[in-house]
# Entry
Amino acid sequence: MSSESANAIQRSQVDLVDFVDWSGVECLNQNTSHSLPNALKQDYREDDGLNLESDADEQLLIYIPFTQVVKLYSVIIKGPEEEGPKTVKLFSNKEHMGFSNVSDFPPSDTAILSPDNLKGKPVVLKYVKFQNVRSLTIFIEDNQSGSDITKVQKIALFGTTVETTDMKGLKKIEDH
# Structure
């Protein structure tokens, strides 16, 4: 993690929830009655009574595609003190990962969540690794207490959208 003190989210950054492509969101090993929308969707994730919970074991593999290219600066991953996530690996633009092949790829960044992170302190990412993000895969490898169930209360992604090319400007060059 970066040594910068990033208690405050920078002004230019936005909550990227509005740019999530919900039709493509996936979560492997989720308990169907405590599923990903509880932690990721607006309003649901503000309710600490709603959790995303793992099912067969403590691991969760979350795939979040975006409707446009984003730059990712930081993440907030909230969870309870005992069952909250501990080791979180983030992968930029890796599609169709499963538990069988997640360890075959080096993560773009790895975070060990502290009690402060679990209460909502942002984790600042290695910014250079998250410049042109079309999708983000979050692999929650284990939890704080080593129990079988991992609980996530909130996932929030902060960054900016990448400016799109001005097509009018492009056309003028071609006309000459």
